Amino acid sequence: MQKKPNAKSLAIIPAYNECERIGKVVAKIRESAEDLDVLVIDDGSLDKTSLCARDAGAKVVRLSSNMGYGVALQTGFKYAYEKNYDFLVQLDGDGQHNPAYIPDMLNVVISGEADLVLGSRFLNTASEGNPILTYKGSKLRKLGIDLFASLTTKLIGFKITDPTSGYQALNKRVIAFFTQDFFPCDFPDADVIVLLHKAGFTIKEFPMIMAQRENGRSMHSGIKPVYYVFKMFLSMFMTLLRKTPTPLY
Q: Global pTM?
């Protein structure tokens, strides 16, 4: 991983009832990027997620109740902004995002190639022997991903294959941008990508493989597909109508 003098980088992990997996995720991050600080945002877990994360060496912010994925994420962005971190990587606590990609994803933002890097399960899938074709999600979920990828592509003018993966690397300007009040409290996905583009940020995708969750319930479990699709369409429509928030710098 490239380094800038005195630059600080942080991994943020929103987690809900992930005690069984969070320690392994933190350990793998340490193996892949030993200079990276790790923050777990415990979204009001009913198990010992906070304790397990601390035992693994992560910093922990615990929310008083289950506030939702977007609130947990923005808590991490605000922490990074207040602590003056220069770069950040966002990944889930269930082990589906492979921390081995962290150095290369961060290199893209550290080098200035992009302000935000999206991990994509579907980039370059035509390559011979490419294992990224191992996506095993439901057909309905894949249809939804394709739908929002197509819509995002049309709205921003260049191809985005996977706006909903949840695996991202970003620089300080995006960190600051995400601390503002517009940030969705529930599902910050394709709508946020459109908003970033409107605000003048550069976006790039990075090919990755996402593992299958071994057991338990994901932080995203319980989201009704019909509600998610309706909410995301509405949010993207409002994004087009609203005044674009001004980057803080």
A: 0.89
Domain spanning 9-241: which CATH class is it, in words? alpha beta
Place of tokens 């630059």: 7
Pair of tokens at residue 92: 């889930």
Residue 158, Cβ neighbours under 10 Å: how many? 10
Between β-strands 168-171 and 116-120, what pairing exists: parallel, antiparallel or unpaired? antiparallel
Dihedral (CA of 71, 76, 78, 79) sign: positive
- DSSP 8-state assignment for residue 138: -
Q: How far apart are CA 20 and CA 45, in angstroms?
A: 12
Burial (0-12, 13-18, 19+ Cβ within 10 Å), 139: exposed
Which among 73, 89, 88 is positioned nearest to 15, based on CA atoms? Answer: 73
Phi-psi region of 129 (alpha: psi -120 to 50; beta: other; left: phi over 0): left
Answer left, alpha or beta for residue 44, where phi above 0 means left and psi between -120 and 50 means alpha: left
Which of 75, 71, 72 has its CA nearest to residue 18?
Answer: 72
Amino acid at 8: K
User: Is residue 29 a contact partner of residue 36, using CB atoms and an 8 Å limit?
Assistant: yes
DSSP β-ladder status, 87-90 and 168-171: antiparallel
Please give the Cα distance from 24 to 21 (Å, whole number).
6
3-state secondary structure of 240: helix
pLDDT digits (tens, 9 = 90+) for 22-80: 999 999 999 999 999 999 999 999 999 999 999 999 999 999 999 999 999 999 999 99
Strands (E), the chain: 9-15, 37-42, 59-62, 87-90, 116-120, 168-171, 203-207
